[in-house]
Amino acid sequence: MNTCNDEFLLEATSYFDVLEQMQDGIFIVDRDFTIRYWNPAAETILGYPAREVCGWACSTLGPLCKRDASGNPLCGEGICPLALSVKGGYTGRYPSYVFMRTADGREIPLSLTMSTLKNREGQVVGGIGMFRDMTEEYGQLKLVSEIQKNMVTIEPFAVGHLRISTLFHPLEVTGGDFVEAFKTDTGLLVASSADATGHGVSAALFAMIYKTLFHSCLKSTYSPAKMLELINKDFVQTSTVEGYYLTASIIVMDPNKRTGYFASAGHPMALIFRKRHGVFVPEPIRERSFMIGMVENCKYQEIPFSLDPGDILFLASDGVYEAEDENGLPFEIEGVTAFFADWTTEKERDLEDLYRLLKSRNPMGQLADDVSALMIESDSL
């Protein structure tokens, strides 16, 4: 029996009745972004009666879509989810969270799904938005996010002849990337970048486990390769969740001699940008190895390196290299190289410029993965 043709469903109700009984908020706009439909759940969640908002442009509501989870505006000069649907044909859940303004002036986090509305001829005549109140879930994520931010290195600092800065932007409120750098009691610089499988809370949990194991192994060795071996062995023994792994790289340097050692567990390559005739030339530090959690007794290789005055060591998660533009082309090593090529002047250097560049390449201003990076600059003589 084909349940799609059950006559009692069509006789007992209508599509309008279905929309009216949905527990998710639903609204429909035309091509001018005028609200043409507003269901009872939308009234309950946001507090605007349908009799008031129908006939209004959605921007009248404060505007309706205020910002995303990163604080980026979504109306006016921002990246409007409705415009992406009506003008650009975007269909699906808008990344992360959207904050909408309620009738009493509050901003609440919502999960927003957009679809284009087409007529029988296939022409786009408007857009359909469906949203759900995510206040409770968002509150829990914010708590995890605050804990995570206290576990990574955010502020730049200097030690010896080196200046260290980082980039850390989870895809959602929290994520699976990890980046940390610090000076040991013995005067060494220790830095690490890691990336756990997946996104959100589960990935953040594994990133926290990595930090715990990372600091634990410092009690017995400052060898990056030995540290990864200890971390991997303990991770395999303590984490029994199938399919969850970590990529990681560890750097240990003498900040006065500008020399150090590098080891990687499946993490993207490190890049040393050598300053040659006023231009930064990339020199990859390649190391192919198993991710943490894949092989219990895996051995890792340690690679020595040194920085000359003016050189830069750059280490990033795959979220940087795989960030796509509007045509689906990834940023890759060429994009990173071009970014550093613009740093030939003496202007202040800021990795946040890299994050803004990655977002600007995507028409939605959104990325598909967590983004983190570590930069170690060797000062000039």
Précis, in short:
The protein is α+β, with helices and mostly antiparallel strands.
Measured between the Cα atoms of the first and last residue, the distance is 81 Å
Compute the number of helices. 11
Largest sheet: 7 strands, antiparallel
Q: Which percent band covers the strand fraction?
A: 25-35%
Rounded mean pLDDT score: 88
What's the shape?
elongated
Number of strands: 18
CA-atom Rg in angstroms: 25 Å
Uncertain segments are none
Class computed from helices, strands and strand pairing = alpha+beta
Helix content: 25-40%
Oligomer: single chain
Q: How do the SSEs run, as a string of H and E?
A: HHEEHHEHEEEEHEEEEHHEEEEEEHHHE
Question: What are the defining features of this structure?
Answer:
381 residues, alpha+beta, 6-stranded antiparallel sheet
Describe this structure in words.
With 381 residues, the chain is of the alpha+beta class. It is built from 11 helices and 18 strands. It has helices at residues 7-12, 15-21, 40-46, 50-53, 81-86, 135-149, 200-217, 224-238, 318-321, 332-341, 352-360; strands at 25-30, 35-38, 65-68, 92-93, 98-101, 107-118, 124-133, 157-159, 162-169, 177-183, 189-196, 246-254, 259-265, 270-276, 279-285, 303-306, 312-316, 371-378. The strands form 3 sheets. Strands 1, 2, 3, 4, 5, 6 and 7 form a 7-stranded antiparallel sheet that branches. It has a 6-stranded antiparallel sheet with strand order 8-9-18-17-14-15. A 5-stranded antiparallel sheet has the order 10-11-12-13-16. The protein is elongated and about 75 Å long. The N and C termini lie far apart (81 Å).
